[in-house]
Design goal:
heterodimer; A: about 230 residues; mainly alpha; Ribosomal Protein S7; 10 helices; B: mainly alpha; RNA binding (chain B)
Chain lengths: ~230, ~120
Amino acid sequence: MAAFTATLLKPWTPRVLQIRWSRYNPYYLEPEPRKEVYSTPETELTPEQLKERELKSVRPIKAAPPVVHSSVFSDPMISKFINMMMKGGNKILARNIMLQTLENIKRKQVEKYHKAPDAEKAGIECNPYVIFHQALANCKPVIGLVTIQRGSRHYQVPTPLTDNRQRFVAMKWMIAECRENKHRRTLMDEKLAQELLAAFANKGPVVKKKFELHKMAEANRAFAHYRWW
Amino acid sequence: MPGRDPAAMASQGVALQQKLGRMLSKSVGKPVLKPNKPLALKDEATCITEMSLLMACWKENDFSDAACSSEVRAFFKCAEKAEAARKAEKGTTVGQKGILHPKQANSLLRRYPNQYKEI
């Protein structure tokens, strides 16, 4: 009993201490993940950069978040896609699905390359990263629709979209399409590979959805003046 | 826009300017308008012309993005400029109505609060 009460009087410290905060003191500096910055000799730097380097030896630096990479293979768009696919914080699974998708794309394209006659071989793209970026660029909508209320009626008003919004919408459509409208037993990487290759060729349901959005915007062009921004 | 003719709209614009001139001037009786701020539309939707050009191009070319790439680029440029202008305007202290935004007033007053006690 006495031992138990003694434990209650101890000052409480958490078992796990955070090292990466979201709110730092303003004098903390940002981390520099790029390798080139560290390999340049002192002669090639401008006076401001030299000053910054001196400052880094005195001031504390924020802990680098896991999003920030220094590898040549890191791609911010692919990282975003992985994060959007992730469920329940299972980044490992999401990342493996993405890597398997890229491998599937590569396999399919290489198979196509070897089967094609020599004239068409130059036209077949085998780099899965290029295919991924081009497919998402083909899915990005140019114009969006916003619901604006005038009186009691709600109108769908065409409006320009920011770059971030376009990218988000394209990725969301892609993932939703693969999750919902496919056969239950096919794995995500297979479905994604199929959809990305279709989008790369400007076919498939995601590009169709983009076109339908454009058609709706064109149909509602009379309401464009209801915007005020 | 459906049912609007650019030539008619231009002539309407000229007539409007003349009427405005007459309403502001003192030579034709008492001036009807005495604006204390410059006359301008309050809320104007940005990039409407670029949008209409883009949609016309889409209608002709069956919504293909490759055929309308120049219009798309023009539309994006206009959207970027409008966004930048809006961001720049957001930071200014005195808003359109000539008074501070309530949030800005609150933050300023918080920085220089009333003194209730002598330190």
